[in-house]
Amino acid sequence: MPENPPLDATAPRMPSIRVALMPKDTNALGTVFGGVILSHLDIAGAIEARKSAPDRMFVTVAMHRVVFDAPVFVGDVVSFYTQTLKRGRTSITIGCRVEAERLREPGVTVKVMDAEIVYVSVDQNRKPVPLSSTES
């Protein structure tokens, strides 16, 4: 499977969100459920989408190339870094990198995953609308 394009290395490294994961987020193996990570990933991506179109509402339509590279453990602090990759007429594609700072290994940060998320701008009836205010 081809790897997602890397986020711009020259962009500032400010996460969209950071979360510490707790025992309620774990499976029987003691690692955090993938679905918990995906939920936070979706929130981080939506925050990035709203930056470029703050007057719009968005719905998630796709997550591409979601592959977990490393597990997340209880107490890890997980950072979600996002960047707008592409804007269409009604859609926006967000790149996201997820990294975990290990609780039990101070100073160690591992890449958990990269993904692309596609959002569509919608109106109150959940119908697609153009991203640009001048087109609506």
Task: Write a concise keyword list for the protein shown above.
elongated, 1 helix, single chain, mainly beta, 136 residues, Thiol Ester Dehydrase, Chain A
Shape: elongated
The percentage helix is 10-25%
Strand content: 35-45%
Radius of gyration, in Å, reads 16 Å
SSE order in H/E notation? EHEEEE
Query: Can you count the helices?
Result: 1
Strand order of the largest sheet: 1-3-4-5-2
Average per-residue pLDDT, rounded, comes to: 89
Structural class: mainly beta
CATH class descriptor: Alpha Beta
Number of domains: 1
CATH architecture: Roll
**Got a strand count?**
5
Oligomer: single chain
Enter the CATH topology name. Answer: Thiol Ester Dehydrase, Chain A
Low-pLDDT sequence parts: none
Distance between the termini: 38 Å
CATH superfamily membership, which one?
Answer: Hotdog Thioesterase
Instruction: State the major sheet.
Output: 5 strands, antiparallel
Q: Can you put this structure into words, describing what you see?
A:
This protein is mainly beta. It has a single domain (17-135), classed as Hotdog Thioesterase (Thiol Ester Dehydrase, Chain A). 14% of the residues lie in helices and 38% in strands. It has one helix at 34-52, and strands spanning 17-20, 57-68, 77-87, 91-101, 109-122. The termini are far apart.
Write the layout of secondary structure elements.
Layout: E1 17-20, H1 34-52, E2 57-68, E3 77-87, E4 91-101, E5 109-122
Antiparallel strand pairs: 1-3, 2-5, 3-4, 4-5
